[in-house]
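Sorry to interrupt, but I need a hand with the structure work. I would like you to pick a protein and set down its sequence and fold. Please put the record directly below this note.
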Amino acid sequence: MKKKVDRDRVARLAGVSSATVSRVFNHPEKVSREKREIVQKAAEQLNYSPNVNAAILAKGIHGRILLLDNNKLLKYDKSNSYYYSWLYVDLLNQIRSVLRNTMYELVISNLEDLRTHELKDLKDFDGIICFDIDTIEDLEPVMNSGVPYVFGHHVRDVLLNEKIYTDNFYGGYLQARFLKETGHDKSIYISGLLDQLNAHKERFDGFREVYTDKNLLLINGVTGKDGGATSARKILNVLKSGEYQSIAVVNDLTAIGVYFELLKNGIKVPEEVSLIGYDNLPFTNLLPKRLSTVDIKIGKLYRSAAEQLLIIIEGGRSDLNKSFKPDLIRGQTVADRT
């Protein structure tokens, strides 16, 4: 009978300690990428796979991490929610890449399941990652569960330490600074649900760090492609007068609606009007001209969230309560008017 390959044999082939092999398969975030690759190559060569069930029983844990979703888009913008599925896929892939070689499986559920008790007990999980939950009322069940948790990504103003968030304020500031530096002294800002969605308010507040009320025209309409088209129609006369030569939009999908409505009415982007969105949706590069936008880096954010959660579960000191600053994507829809 062929002897089962054990951890020590993998360690000898890889030239590392047995403890390092254990960390690669249980806590890869604690091992350098170079050593992880060496160990994984040795494991593949020897056809080794860790006994996950035994490890779970030995540690007295459940072996499950919960991704708790707020389903906010279905609540506020159901008709356009499928356009943002790439965001979800990106963060899922990043979380799974962190958990892939650990003893933990990822379970996905949502707040509604928690409220209706379909999700029985949060204590059935070893850790919780919260997606798009941004009010203290919605966070309380998780905070009171006694289970290690990490909140992201629209939680800038929630007074918690266990959070990793995207800095929407800075993202709005990036939009405004880019327009100002390219010679746009006045700007239109198109948004929606400003009084309901913190992320939208933060982006607008960041934009107003550069543009004062006298140099800014706000359209607080409906988001989404159709909403963007409707908002664009409201400002056609203002744009044709030449008083404003730039538009910033709260998200890319709404900006796409603005873009095509302007073209439909004979207004050239960016020759006559510059346009910048927010989110860096992957299909914005399929427009006639690549949309200038802001990249929220959601995959990197949730990869970090998963790594930090594993550290918390083990009782280590995590690097939490930090922001991910978005990046400006210059694109082709903002003209230099300096």
Notes: Residues 168-295 form a domain with the Rossmann fold fold (CATH 3.40.50.2300). The CA atoms of residues 27 and 314 lie 9 Å apart.
